[in-house]
Amino acid sequence: xxxxLKEYLxxxxxxxxxLTIKEKVYREDIPALIEKLSWEGKILLFEKIKGxxxxxxxxxxxxxxxxxxxxxxxxxxxxxxxAIQRTEKQIHVKGKKRKHIDVSGKDLLDxxxxxxxxxxxxxxxxxxxxxxxxxxxxxxVGRGIHRMEYRGKNHLGVTLLNPPLTTIxxxxxxxxxxxxxxxxxxxxxxxxxxMALKVxxxxxxxxxxxxxxxxxxxxxxxxxxxxxxxxxxxxxxEGYVDESMCKKDGPLGEISGYYLSLEKTPTIVVQHxxxxxxxxxxxxxxxxxxxxxxxxxxxxxxxxxxxxxxFPFVVNITFVxxxxxxSLVVNVRTPEKFKIRNLMLFLLSFPMIKKVVVVDDDVNxxxxxxxxxxxxxxxxxxxxxxIINKLQGQPIDPTVEDVxxxxxxxxxxxxxxxxxxxxxxxxxxxxxxxxxxMSKITGRC
Length: 445
What we know:
Layout: H1 5-13, E1 18-25, H2 30-37, E2 43-49, E3 55-58, H3 65-71, H4 76-83, E4 91-92, E5 99-102, E6 125-126, E7 130-134, E8 141-145, E9 148-150, E10 155-158, H5 165-174, E11 179-185, H6 189-194, H7 205-213, E12 218-221, E13 228-230, E14 235-253, E15 259-275, E16 280-282, H8 289-310, E17 314-319, E18 327-332, H9 337-348, E19 355-360, H10 368-378, H11 381-384, E20 385-392, E21 405-413, H12 431-440
Parallel strand pairs: 1-2, 3-16, 4-12, 18-19, 19-21
Antiparallel strand pairs: 2-3, 5-15, 6-9, 7-8, 7-11, 9-10, 10-15, 11-14, 12-13, 14-15, 17-18, 20-21
């Protein structure tokens, strides 16, 4: 399995999955370019950014097929569920020589093309930073992906909302100490997704990443703080969290498509920056397909395991893009209508799932027109709709009440138990002759 971002890019280049933008671009224009180009289904590599020596990569996971290649299997969901049960200890290595800049008093924007993603964002934000800090009691390193707001010069606001870093931060605060942090930017997708997982207390996420990759992660100690960080990371920042420099955080456009602000968050004072040759900065637009792919890959892996075990008539589960994992289309093959209702109730019990549409296996779940056709022609609203209020949902859902409560919907758009004629399918003809004609039509391949 690939061990670095650069190895990953070399691999996907061989599959023609990378769109390289050779024209010089302005940092301010990159978010719009990511938005316009991401839906073409390719990784975006910007080779020249005005005012910067580094490159920038975005849309690192254009589809779940990436994980088939990374894990070497046609069923990456099953592989993922099994692999994250294993752990592999880190492997300490010497590491390659890196360039070092003391950024105390300097401006991070002079070195890193941090993006202002949305029109009303308060500032540019780092959205791919893996923050690491040692627990002052156990010495175990806690890690997580947390958004960081550029606050001028070498200052970054940090949103510490989730464990283990929230717990570690509180321990440093109780001792009257500033929490040391090492920030890594630029790793391969398998490693990156591992850093977003919940792990048992006392477990270093690097061990889970090692289990996922089938080999211990090679690490080095950050030069000033001695915190284990990935040897393959493109960029390393070191500093500390200063609680005395709290201020309002955001707004920042989040994966839901809406802005999110926090009343106040502390500030990271960045002191040192390390990077190797040919630096590549990983940028992640929160509403891009990349964000969606990470979230839905993990969710589908968990859903596949439990759903198909309980409901073996499920053929496929598809997450609707741009719904941050909240909307599903499920293909089934069953003659029993009541089982479909049970399936919908089961899926809606998951906090992240807000809407489920169940269709027959002759419907293309990735074609919204085909799904809508099934809803219109195979659904009796008075019998086939389920609407349930006050269920636990995602906190990022803008319709939530009392922190988590949402109303959910299930739609049975199958023909099961209904007097509906067979679907009319276009005659297939001779595939070879049709392809020969198509290939000669201008603009077709």
